[in-house]
Amino acid sequence: MKRRVVVTGLGVITALGQDVEEFWSAIVNGRSGVSLITAFDTTDFDVKIGCEVKDFDPSAFIDKKSLRRMDRFVQFAVVASLKALQDSGIAINEENASRVGVSLGSGIGGMRTMEEQFKISHEKGPRRVSPFFIPMIIANMGAGQVSIYTGARGPNFSTVTACASSAHAIGEAFRAIQYGDADVMIAGGSEAAITPISYAGFTSAGTLAKRNDEPEKASRPFDAGREGFVMGEGAGIIILEELEKARARGARIYGEIVGYGLSGDAYHITAPHPEGMGGYEAMKNTLNDAGLKPEEIDYINAHGTSTIPNDKIETMAIKRLFGDHAYKLAVSSTKSMIGHLLGAAGGVEAIITVLALKNGIIPPTINYETPDPDCDLDYVPNKARKQECRYALSNSFGFGGHNACLAFARFDE
Fold first, then answer.
1. Per-residue pLDDT averaged across 120-126, rounded?
2. Which residues lie below 8 Å from residue 67, measured CB to CB, with a gap of 6+?
3. How would you label 222-244 residue by residue, b for 16+ Cβ within 10 Å and e otherwise?
4. Binning pLDDT at 50, 70 and 90, where does residue 1 land?
5. From 51, 168, 273, 303, active-site residue
6. Which of 48, 62, 213, 395 is the most exposed, fewest CB within 10 Å of its CB?
7. The total number of structural domains that make up the chain
């Protein structure tokens, strides 16, 4: 029999806050984290906006020597993980270390370090490249450093599936506990891709919003005026724990993870399947895994990127799976406020989904002004809604046709 898995700790680093309470308040109040970029000179760039994490000071968690050997995405991962562990009240020691694992995702890894070290190599020669270059850029180092900093010696791995990375990481961590490979998993993801070459690449691909004169209105999922996503950065980490272990130690339980589904589009390197087959299959597989009927779902935290194809096709997939119930669902995209955190998106959005169930508040899709005939569901426009929900889904879809979906339940003793 599969073991039940609950969420007992949360840690978040985003443009809207580095504390869960502060972050959740901003989400509920529909605040935008989009602003003009300060990380680099955007003079020659068509896109000058993003959801930057500002005033990030990891020195309270990581010593200065180690910081110099960590890319920003790893710093985010370590700090958010330590905060989540602290929130959970779990102390890792010799007795339990081998039963605590780490599962983190990152879509890109150490992009900032890559750019900095390439510049050094080009200007000063290859012998000046840092000996820590490789371990700073590889995407698995978030999970590796979190293990080192926490002492967790259980299952340790990293997922790299573009924008579905941290949702996959959480799903696989869920299964590791279900099947007895671990009792506790530190799960989620981190990303720090607000860099010149990332912006150059995504802009060339035509995927970023260019509303530089109105940054806070740039991310507008499901709205007829949407033109692209806004880049975000940060980390979202949750502590997953086997239910009886959590009960035995008197843990605070935020919610329960009850299902996980995944699929591939087998269609295109960047575009979603035109009929939404990948998203449909991922959600269907999640419901099957959770033993839930479509009509039992109350809320979907959508992938909702604010790109023209994604929002239309995700809507199509929801209607295909849920039928008439699709029009009774609340569907919102919190990327309207925090931007698209790429490989970290699923981790942060899992936190939002759990808090929505726990607090009986559905977060809004802000900047929803002009309805799109192709997007005709209830997107909780502009204002949060007080509504008790029993079950919710969180969708994450990535370049390459990678799709993941997580099902959460309100936890009732």
1. 96
2. 58, 59, 75
3. bbeebbbbbbbbbbbbbbbbbbe
4. confident
5. 303
6. 213
7. 2
Total-model pTM: 0.98
Give 350's Cβ-side CA count (13 Å radius): 43
Asked whether residue 220 falls in the same domain as residue 299, the answer is no
Indicate whether 197 and 291 sit together in one domain: no
Enter the tokens of residue 161: 């599936």
The yes-or-no verdict on residue 413 having pLDDT over 80 is no
In whole angstroms, how far apart are CA 304 and each of 257, 349, 395?
Answer: 21, 11, 9
For residues 411 and 275, give the distance between their C-alpha atoms in angstroms, rounded to a whole number: 34
Catalytic residue (choose from 163, 375, 389, 405): 163
Q: Does a structural domain hold residue 254? A: no
Domain at 131, CATH number:
3.40.47.10
Residues 124, 266, single domain; the answer is no
Tell me: do 310 and 169 sit in the same domain.
no
Range of the domain at 19: 5-248
pLDDT in tens, 269-287: 999 999 999 999 999 999 9
Last residue of one domain, picked from the residues 218, 248, 278 = 248
Residues 165, 285: one domain? Answer: no
Nearest to 261 by CA among 290, 239, 240, 299: 290
Handedness of CA 213, 216, 222, 227 (dihedral sign): positive
Written as one string, the DSSP assignment of 61-106 is TS-HHHHTTS-HHHHHHHHHHHHHHHHHT----TTTGGGEEEEEE-
Query: What's the pLDDT tens digit per position in 16-36?
Result: 999 999 999 999 999 999 999
pLDDT tier at 412, thresholds 50, 70, 90:
confident
The tokens for 296 are 């039992």
Q: Tell me whether residue 325 is one of the annotated catalytic residues.
A: no
Same structural domain for residues 68 and 159? yes
Q: Within 13 Å of residue 203, how many CA atoms lie on the same side as its CB?
A: 17
Residue owning tokens 């035995």: 248
For the stretch 240-267, pLDDT in tens is 999 999 999 999 999 999 999 999 999 9
Given the residues 340, 375, 402, 405, select the one marked as catalytic. Answer: 340
Token pair listed for 64 = 């200065």
> Do 272 and 181 belong to one domain?
no
